[in-house]
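Possible regression after last week's pipeline update?

I re-ran a chain I had predicted before the update to compare outputs. Posting the input and the new output here so someone can diff against the archived version. Not blocking, just want to make sure nothing changed silently.
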Amino acid sequence: MKKYAVIPDLHERWDLLNQARRLHQQGYKLIFLADYVDSYEAKGDGIQFLLAVIDLIIENQSIALWGNHDVQYIGGSHLRCSGYQESLAAVLKITFESNKHLFTNIFVCEETKSIFSHAGLSSNYLAALEENYGLTSLEDVVYLTNQNVKEVFYISAYNDGSDPFDGPLWLRPYLYTQEVFKDYTQYVGHVYNECVRQYKNMLVLDTGKPFLIEK
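New output (post-update):
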């Protein structure tokens, strides 16, 4: 049996990271949905936390995604997300950039028919890829998304992802109104809720708790 533990937005929560570590010890493959830093409680240990996350990613050979709170430190966004740590920005940039090979924008697990990204793939995002690159298959979408094409980083004037044209680091799931890749389930974080929410074939897992998938 394959066991996956999907770890939602960490935001420097040591309790959630410790849960992930215990699941690793129990034989689960970890999939991190990103937003590792920018604690809303701002304890000032963002560097130590990120290094602990990176150690676990390497030890577990985890799937680790990029999130909007992460890419802002490596120049992936002109915006500053809530919780942005100006005093740590230079060191966070170095830490993320020196470990860029560990992170990706999207991951597809054919075994579980699952698509993992930070905020989700929308019909508008796919239409933009088709118009600009002429590619529409899931394999093509994964390739382009992980090549950091400009559409990945599209951010609306609203600054919070509240535009249906926002990319997979920014889309708000309640704007996911047209189901895409219907044979797959999309797993995303990005929007906190106390319980898992479903929007068509998209599950929003940012609950502060790991989500387990066993196949």
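Follow-up from reviewer: compared with the archived run. Helices lie at 14-25, 46-60, 68-71, 89-98, 123-133, 138-146. Marking as no regression found.
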